[in-house]
Write a structure and sequence with these properties.
2 copies of one chain form a homodimer. Chain A is mostly helical and 286 residues long. Chain A has a single domain, classed as Farnesyl Diphosphate Synthase (Orthogonal Bundle). Helix content of chain A is 65%, strand content 0%. Chain A contains 11 helices and no strands. In chain A, helix 3 packs parallel to helix 8 and helix 7 crosses helix 8. At the A-B interface, helix 2, helix 5, helix 6 and helix 7 of A face helix 2, helix 5, helix 6 and helix 7 of B. Chains A, B: Its cofactor is Mg(2+). Chains A, B: Keywords: Magnesium, Metal-binding. Chains A, B: One of its GO terms (molecular function) is prenyltransferase activity. Chains A, B: InterPro entries: Isoprenoid_synthase_dom_sf.
Chain lengths: 286, 286
């Protein structure tokens, strides 16, 4: 396994405060200097390649360009999320075929893309009102299109799922899991953190990791217990990423927190065959 | 059949421009003086009662109140829409049982409620920026909650559908129909009218009438042709309502347009048993 820095999804896009130390694109993934988590990179990259290729087939730029160009843009602009990758990995852990989980994983990516775009818009509105005009220029599309597109992506994800041709019963279970993660329950989770929209987006994004793993286990034909355990594993992975991306926290505190969460995460995998968990556990550096 | 004025869903809430001629609540349904469409009121009311009772069971005000109170509010505040009623009526036309369509009809109502709330918010933003502060007081909840709730209602509707326990294959077909109506295709339809968000909401709401009728036909086990015909019938009903609610149009022109649309609508019902279409055709005054 190659030792590489963990690539973190960005929950808090900050397109305006670019200092000289930033790269020209403000949307590159962040890493933290002290905590390096080795991953089985090839495995995760192969998953992302499969999800990407499915999404590219599903979302082609076609007429009317004014609708499908921004949808394509906002689907492929956000950094990769481990939430969708976990979906495929969880499917394989319970003995399912990758193909069975790729559509669900694509739907998870779309939900994440919608949250990401929404946060981008909210950040614009917030910073815009503080700093006056000019902010719009940083965005390829206007805030109106950002809002319409991020809203339009959500039903599109359900359409993709429902039309997959996969097992109907499992697909409906996945619809419920995803709807709960991004809907009312996501709002509940957001409430616990206070109603700030940005935090809400972050919390929903973390929930999406648990949801992703659960959906993969469902599509792979996992038992109820397997689904629940993989869901909790996914939530811990999401929490670890949350800690790592928290720029306000002391590095020592972060190391301690990540160690504790990693232990809890791995406990959830104990009931599975040791060989099968090699791939999925590599995401927390085992 | 009782001759009553057609109740029109409001696509363009206008909470701020209340003149002395307005009732205190700006959200009452509008009627037009010249065009009176007789309806089989008891039939449509019985449908709305069934949908309402299902929604009330599904969306109860529970903890955390800050999430479920606005969701309840924004579900039951919008005027009734014939889009959801058409769903139940179409199911009955193709020989299905009402129970099979009530969940789909509830999901259609929720989508409509989300569009309605979104439009309310956009109108506030638009008028607010023109008229300065004070506008917020007209809303029970802040614009932040309006946005979060209208977004949260969409996945909740899919959750409701997927968990209904109805036929899986038909349910997945309904998920696709609804997702198309409110998602990318809705945006396409909006584009044709220009990108104004308000118009888009209106167009999506009209599409929802076709979608509602199609979903009812699907749940009732209709053939492909029956589904397509009822979908077009629904679109005509939506267009008639659009004409009737257009305050800028001359009454004479309206009468002519409605007559033409009514003829086209009824043509779509010709393939059905004459007795069975009595109820559904009463919505266009036959």
């Amino acid at each position: 396994m190659a030792g590489v820095n963990l690539h973190l999804p960005l929950y808090k896009p900050n397109p305006t405060r670019s200092s000289s130390s930033h790269t020209p694109s403000a949307y590159t993934t962040r890493t933290t200097d002290l905590i390096t988590i080795p991953q089985n990179l090839a495995y995760w990259e192969s998953i992302h390649t499969d999800i990407d290729s499915h999404l590219k087939k599903s979302i082609q730029i076609r007429e009317p360009i004014s609708v499908f160009e921004p949808m394509h843009h906002f689907t492929f602009t956000p950094p990769k999320t481990t939430a969708s990758a976990l979906c495929v990995a969880a499917c394989e852990v319970v003995g399912g075929n990758r193909e069975d989980a790729v559509v669900a994983a694509s739907a998870i990516h779309l939900m994440y893309a919608s949250i990401y775009t929404h946060n981008l818009l909210l950040e614009t509105v917030r910073v815009g009102s503080e700093s006056g005009p000019g902010i719009e220029n940083l965005h390829k599309f206007g805030s109106n299109i950002e809002l319409l597109t991020s809203d339009g992506i959500v039903p599109f994800a359900f359409e993709l799922l429902a039309g997959s041709g996969n097992d109907s019963g499992r697909t409906l279970q996945v619809v419920i899991e995803i709807a709960k993660a991004v809907g009312a329950q996501g709002m509940v989770a957001g409430e616990d953190d206070g109603v700030e929209a940005e935090k809400l987006g972050g919390e929903v994004a973390r929930q999406l990791h648990g949801c992703g793993a659960a959906c993969g286990a469902i599509m792979g034909g996992g038992t109820l217990e397997e689904i629940e355990r993989l869901k909790r594993y996914g939530v811990y992975v999401g929490k670890i990423e949350g800690v790592l991306s928290d720029e306000g926290k002391d590095e020592g505190v972060k190391v301690e927190l990540v160690e504790r969460l990693r232990g809890l995460a791995l406990k959830e995998l104990e009931c599975f065959d040791g060989k099968k968990i090699q791939q999925i556990s590599s995401i927390v550096g085992v």
